[in-house]
Design goal:
It is built from twelve helices and nine strands. It has helices at 11-18, 34-42, 61-68, 83-92, 109-113, 128-136, 155-162, 172-178, 218-230, 236-239, 246-253, 266-276, and strands spanning 30-31, 51-55, 72-77, 97-101, 117-122, 146-154, 181-189, 194-195, 202-209. Helix 11 (246-253) packs across helix 12. The N and C termini lie far apart (64 Å). Belongs to the class I-like SAM-binding methyltransferase superfamily. rRNA adenine N(6)-methyltransferase family. RsmA subfamily.
């Protein structure tokens, strides 16, 4: 069967032609390995005619992989230098790519990409975590507006997202990522795959939402984890004493107040947050 996808110039040629040196100020690190990029774009599953959203496409390496997979993609890029290269991709994939110049922190992703979008991005290191927290904090009714998150992070951030209780990386980000979602490291990426190579290893995290537990509000979970992990080396009876209703919730759930936050499971935090909502 013939491959009817457009023939594209090598990414290195595109970058050289447009003079696109990676910007340290924008947290840019480019990936050139097209097989690797295709593997990342395959993580969400079938993308044919599916809505997708990308942050920081840069010269368009991952962008072309997402387009090859058949998605209808909205990409947000704040580096004006990259817009001509992305315009070439728009021409190569008619009707599949819309580029929004601007800052992803200021863009309403839901309004631009639409419900059911797969968010796929090699996130700029300096905005990755705030963007993730924003997507995880979306309204669930019974699921969020996005279908999945496939995101590249520094390895340390990836480990914090998927961490289990009792580990050094377990904290607020793990609870936020896992209380109504499944999070896993889908792929590790060596620093040498990037240009310029970052100082640390990276990983692609894949997050899929599931219905939120009944009678639990995000605001109560956030207050609880902020207090508990804000003084993570202290016993819960100390770290939670300033949060109204928290110590009573511990007692009601049979959780030993001498435990520390890093030993409390996601399910236990959810149960405590449910109790706080009843105060």
């Amino acid at each position: 069967m013939a491959d009817d996808r457009p023939a594209l110039p090598p990414l290195r040629d595109v970058i050289a032609r447009h003079g696109l040196a990676a910007s340290k100020a924008l947290g840019q690190n480019f990936l050139f390995d097209e097989q690797l990029l295709d593997r990342i774009a395959a993580i969400p599953g079938a993308l044919t005619d599916a809505p997708a959203f990308e942050v920081g496409p840069g010269p368009g390496g991952l962008t072309r992989a997402i387009l090859r997979a058949g998605a209808r993609l909205v990409a947000v890029e704040r580096d004006d230098r990259c817009l001509p290269a992305l315009a070439e991709l728009s021409d190569a994939f008619p009707g599949q790519l819309r580029v929004i110049p601007g800052d992803a922190m200021q863009v309403d992703a839901r309004a631009e990409a639409g419900n059911g979008a797969h968010i796929i991005a090699n996130l700029p290191y300096n905005v990755g975590t705030p963007l993730l927290v924003g997507w995880l904090s979306a309204a669930w009714s019974p699921l969020p507006w996005w279908s999945s998150l496939t995101l590249m992070f520094q390895m340390e951030v990836a480990e914090r997202i998927v961490a289990k209780p009792g580990t050094d990386h377990y904290g607020r980000l793990a609870v936020l990522s896992q209380w109504r979602s499944d999070a896993r490291i889908a792929m590790k990426v060596h620093r040498s795959a990037f240009t310029p190579p970052p100082k640390v290893m990276s990983a692609v995290v894949h997050i899929t939402p599931k219905p939120a537990p009944d009678d639990v509000q995000l605001k109560h979970l956030e207050r609880l984890t902020a207090a508990a992990f804000g003084q993570r080396r202290k016993m819960l009876r100390q770290s939670l004493k300033g949060l109204p209703g928290a110590l009573a919730a511990l007692e009601a759930e049979g959780i030993d107040p001498q435990r520390r936050a890093e030993t409390v499971s996601v399910e236990e935090f959810v149960a405590l947050a449910r109790r706080l909502g009843q105060v």
